[in-house]
Specification:
By secondary structure, the protein is mainly β. It contains one helix and 17 strands. It folds into two domains: 12-85, Immunoglobulin-like; 113-246, Jelly Rolls (Sandwich). The strands form four sheets. Strands 7, 8, 10, 14, 16 and 17 form a six-stranded antiparallel beta sheet that branches. Strands 9, 11, 12, 13 and 15 form a five-stranded antiparallel beta sheet that branches.
Amino acid sequence: MSYIGTPPSNAFTSLLKQDFSTSATTGYTLDHAVNNANDIALFINFVRQEPTAAYSASGTTLTLTSATASSDDMYCVYLGQALQTVNPPNASVGTSQLVDGAVTSAKLASGVGGKVLQVVTATDSTQRTTTSTSYVTASNTLSVNITPSSTSSKIFVTVSSAFGLPSGADGIATIYRDSTNLEGSLGSGFARLSASNGASIVMNVLDSPNTTSQVTYQVYIRETSAVANLSLNWTGVTGTITAFEIGA
């Protein structure tokens, strides 16, 4: 059929339905206001009741001419309350129809296993030192905050920097998630420098935080003998930490 102007959209209409908890009464409350009894179709024990004869309705007040019993099944259909939906045809929506930021990471996380959902990174070029034999941050800013889109997401964290310490000393670096040391079964951190003046370090870890709350990944360092300063970002090297959220 031909049309003048824009063709009408294909639409699907469904009518609102309300179920009632029945008791020995004639008065009930409607979820939606109506003008009169003809605006709803009332069914008791699956038999449609005659408007104005079996019941009256005005606003949200429904009044029956005979009381129901608690064992009765009663519901109504709102004849004037239609829900209409229009679904666009397949492959008809382009990027220009999407509002900026409308597709969230949570939506991307659904059914896209192995895809990078977000990336956060931080850098620091200040040399940080410690003689502590326990893991400390040494006030370093090699840390990132990330909020996973799904509890099943994995977070891949990579760090690059440089260590420096006098010959004969021993230094170790690791990555923490909040207060949890992620060195796992290694038992000695991810990077270790012994009997050397300095060296580049690279650390990587694939973590499963199992949360949708914000988590912090940060570099921690420690000495093993407290005999000399252990330096991170040695000689002003710019350290970098990056966290990738990977969809499960």
